Amino acid sequence: MGDMVSTPMVxxxxxxxxxxxxxxxxxxxxxxxxLRPHVxxxxxxxxxxxxxxxxxxxxxxxxxxxxxxxxxxxxxxFDDLFIAYPLWLTRSSAARLIDVAERARVSFGADSVDxxxxxGARLGDAASRFEVLIEVDSGHGRSGVHPDRxxxxxxxxxxxxLRVSGxxxxxxxxxxxxxxxxxARDEAKSLRRATRLLAESGVPVRIRSGxxxxxxxxxxxxxxxxARPGVYVFGDAQQWELGRTEPSDIALTVxxxxxxxxxxxxGRRIVLDSGSKILGADRPGxxxxxxxxxxxxxxxxxxxSEHHATxxxxxxxPLPVCGSRxxxxxxxxxxxxxxxxxxxxxxxxxxxxxxxVAARGRNS
Length: 364
Hints:
By secondary structure, the chain is an alpha/beta fold. Strands 1, 10, 11, 12, 13, 14, 15, 16 and 17 form a nine-stranded mixed sheet that branches. It has an eight-stranded parallel sheet with strand order 2-9-8-7-6-5-4-3, with helices on one face. It is built from eleven helices and 17 strands. It has helices spanning 14-31, 45-53, 64-71, 91-100, 113-123, 150-159, 180-200, 213-216, 237-242, 276-279, 333-337, and strands spanning 9-13, 34-35, 59-61, 80-86, 105-110, 131-135, 163-168, 207-210, 226-227, 252-264, 267-272, 291-293, 300-304, 309-312, 325-330, 342-347, 350-356.
């Protein structure tokens, strides 16, 4: 990348992106599991089209705003959207949801009796147009009802006029050292139990949805009907340090410039122009810094401020000079896409296109 490129800049390697999309699609297809990728990671229509072309059965979104973006995308919109979130509807959000349903098949999550009763009341006569998936907690300890109570929520949803089509979970505890396999087992166990209890209560289950990026390739094809990974399209430093991706497969980096350099006996460091306002501030306990440098794997980002990233180097590693361009791998790629309006698309080290982050900021 030459001097005509301003930094910091988010760059997507198109060849790596395509390879990642194809790999996940093929792995899940071999297991007999449909792929419903979570587009909150990238928020980009062009990438969603690539996922659909690779065989995705539909898209997962996090918010009504994201559903609006993809349903109303220029050209042919996306017609099968699952809002994987226990929505608490208001009068205005219910009206928006009904409008989206004019363009697409829309389903959404629920994890409480109060939530489905509220949804039924807000949606009124339109309630029967929507499918609901009951969210169960498979060990992550966030949203989701205990599997033993899933039938209670499903019965309330049916009573409220909604159609219950299945159950879903997010095995988020897969984000931890050596936790992907246990999380996949917990996911299968929870979905299997919830399915049995719903069936016993007279509510047939058509969809069993799960999958995080660390656990998706380990999903049980005898239990899951679909999986919803998101980060797999890009990879990030979390996935790198968890051993779920290789540096050669990481498709999104932040191009940064060395703006300061210290090569002294009491410290060898550089400072980059990529701070928290481009990399995001996430740093889970299992990662070794605030991000990684793809071309300097032994270096670590030890501190972030808004527009500075401090990178420490071991004594044996070469120290880049001021003005050098460095490719930074953010810890959590999903937060990066919510911080920029557009990304550069590269092939062979050259920028060939620009994609708008169409759903940026659509957080409600």
